[in-house]
């Protein structure tokens, strides 16, 4: 069975992959995550949307333990997130993360940026890591730039490299935190196209974005966050055409005007 068939079957049976239960997090007096319950199925694509400061980034960062939580639980594939050491490094590999800023290593080539994690964390041999990295760079349309340095690439190209770099670790889930919001308009589509393809191939994805085209094309579910809580969740079609809460109506009213 191919990995993709495996994923599709799992998606169909609705097995939960990432489960957050009663997750709470404070930054001092600010209650930034409030009783978050969220279960993400294998193969599911969840778009997280909501006003600035509502806790979307903190939610993503909690899922790969860049942020600790105060109480509640987060499990990946049935296992609680490890707190430290080698287990934490492995978790970070299993949860691919793509940020707004690309965070590529400036003094390493594109190819080295993609192979570094597999070699250092996964112990993959350089020749094997190179081969796999070239396949991934091919997939995101950057293979011909493999020997260049990040600064020689456009923002859209760098973001596609960042996606390839995360994929090189064979993650179970990919988190995207506003991956296109720092890009010039003409580059947004090339990144979204890669993400749509990934979704179609059955990758489990959590995507913070206000790109409604992406949400409508690729998401199974939209989660609307407001002031640290999940205020509403629904299918993209229902959420965008018929938001139930006043806060979601307000928010959509604002972003749709732009
Ligand atoms: N490290 C931090 N220390 C203190 N406050 C923070 C920190 N990170 C985020 N915050 C605050 O937490 C709230 C939620 O932030 P964030 O998760 O980044 O929201 P979003 O991604 O939805 O814009 C904001 O009010 C933000 O200022
Ligand atoms: Mg954010």
Automatic annotation (TrEMBL):
<keyword id="KW-0472">Membrane</keyword>
<keyword id="KW-0029">Amino-acid transport</keyword>
<feature type="domain" description="ABC transporter">
    <location>
        <begin position="18"/>
        <end position="252"/>
    </location>
</feature>
<dbReference type="InterPro" id="IPR003439">
    <property type="entry name" value="ABC_transporter-like_ATP-bd"/>
</dbReference>
<dbReference type="GO" id="GO:0005524">
    <property type="term" value="F:ATP binding"/>
</dbReference>
<dbReference type="Pfam" id="PF00005">
    <property type="entry name" value="ABC_tran"/>
</dbReference>
<keyword id="KW-1003">Cell membrane</keyword>
<comment type="similarity">
    <text>Belongs to the ABC transporter superfamily.</text>
</comment>
<keyword id="KW-0067">ATP-binding</keyword>
<dbReference type="InterPro" id="IPR030679">
    <property type="entry name" value="ABC_ATPase_HisP-typ"/>
</dbReference>
<dbReference type="InterPro" id="IPR017871">
    <property type="entry name" value="ABC_transporter-like_CS"/>
</dbReference>
<dbReference type="InterPro" id="IPR027417">
    <property type="entry name" value="P-loop_NTPase"/>
</dbReference>
<keyword id="KW-0813">Transport</keyword>
<protein>
    <submittedName>
        <fullName>Glutamine transport ATP-binding protein GlnQ</fullName>
    </submittedName>
</protein>
<dbReference type="InterPro" id="IPR050086">
    <property type="entry name" value="MetN_ABC_transporter-like"/>
</dbReference>
<keyword id="KW-0547">Nucleotide-binding</keyword>
<dbReference type="InterPro" id="IPR003593">
    <property type="entry name" value="AAA+_ATPase"/>
</dbReference>
């Amino acid at each position: 069975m191919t990995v993709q068939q495996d994923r599709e079957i799992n998606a169909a049976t609705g097995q939960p992959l990432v489960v957050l239960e009663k997750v709470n997090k404070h930054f001092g007096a600010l209650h930034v995550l409030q009783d978050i319950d969220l279960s993400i199925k294998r193969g599911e694509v969840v778009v997280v949307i909501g006003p600035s400061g509502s806790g979307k980034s903190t939610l993503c960062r909690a899922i790969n333990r860049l942020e600790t939580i105060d109480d509640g639980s987060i499990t990946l594939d049935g296992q609680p997130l490890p707190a430290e050491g080698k287990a934490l490094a492995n978790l970070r590999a299993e949860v691919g993360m793509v940020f707004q800023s690309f965070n590529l290593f400036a003094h390493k080539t594109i190819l080295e940026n993609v192979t570094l994690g597999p070699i250092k964390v996964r112990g993959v041999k350089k020749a094997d890591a190179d081969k796999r990295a070239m396949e991934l760079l091919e997939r995101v349309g950057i293979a011909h730039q493999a020997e260049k340095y990040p600064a020689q690439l456009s923002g859209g190209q760098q973001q596609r490299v960042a996606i390839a770099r995360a994929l090189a670790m064979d993650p179970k889930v990919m988190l995207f935190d506003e991956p296109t919001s720092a890009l010039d308009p003409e580059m947004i589509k090339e990144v979204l196209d890669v993400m749509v393809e990934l979704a179609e191939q059955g990758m489990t994805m959590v995507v913070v974005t206000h790109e409604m085209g992406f949400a409508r094309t690729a998401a199974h579910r939209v989660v609307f966050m407001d002031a640290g809580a999940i205020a509403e969740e629904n299918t993209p079609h229902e959420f965008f055409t018929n938001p139930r809460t006043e806060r979601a109506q307000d928010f959509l009213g604002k972003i749709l005007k732009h």
